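Cross-posted from the bioinformatics board.
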Amino acid sequence: MLRNTRESWGAPAKLLHWTMAALVFAQFALGWLAASWRLSPTKLNLFVWHKSTGILLLALVTVRIVWRLLNPTPALPAGLPRWERAAARASHLLLYLLLVAMPLTGWIINSTANIPFRVFWLFPLPDITAPDKALEELAKKVHLGLFIALALTLTVHIGAALRHHFVKHNDILARMLPGKGRRA
Ligand code: HEM
Ligand code: HEM
């Protein structure tokens, strides 16, 4: 099943969800390691990995949003309280916004800092702003703030997924897992 249905997610949506989930966790670690490593060739390599993975995430979230808009969305189980529906919608929208804003602020840091950088050592990333020390400092603060917001939202997101599965016993988690489409 490629396309989503009103009952479950199709294979591309699941693949994008779990690939991006893995990359986002790796990206947290890479960002933290790169920022805290002592100045050395390793630090520079960690930054190339962090920035490259971030640009890859920006490409993936673009594909994901387009795919999401072209497909039906699985309906939430009947009987789910209104506040939970509203919370699910709001938190998913927030996740998409953060997944776009994080790489964009990273890209601004890279441009303002005027550091030559090749995505996965392959091609140069064009600058989206001119070098600017004040904007660089601001973009760094916003990038860190967005990271904290993303980490908090994901804590709620994962907690909610586990609650639906283990406490409410509905199929919300199962239908996002690989190969469970037809049973949902
Ligand atoms: C162990 C980690 C995770 C679990 C158990 C999990 C679980 C889920 C589940 C069950 C859904 C489907 C909700 C529904 O059917 O209505 C979902 C949707 C979603 N997840 Fe996760 N997730 C995890 C990690 C992540 C991460 C790291 C991200 C960020 C990259 C993320 C972003 C999203 C988004 C944006 C949606 C909304 C899908 C949509 O409505 O288009 N998730 N997640
Ligand atoms: C979803 C994508 C991204 C996530 C989750 C992410 C996350 C992080 C985290 C956790 C840190 C360490 C905390 C900090 O010191 O600010 C960080 C730092 C940094 N990130 Fe990202 N990042 C992403 C994308 C990018 C991209 C695309 C670039 C550049 C092209 C980038 C450039 C940087 C830079 C330069 C720093 C160091 C900031 C400083 O020295 O204060 N990031 N990122």
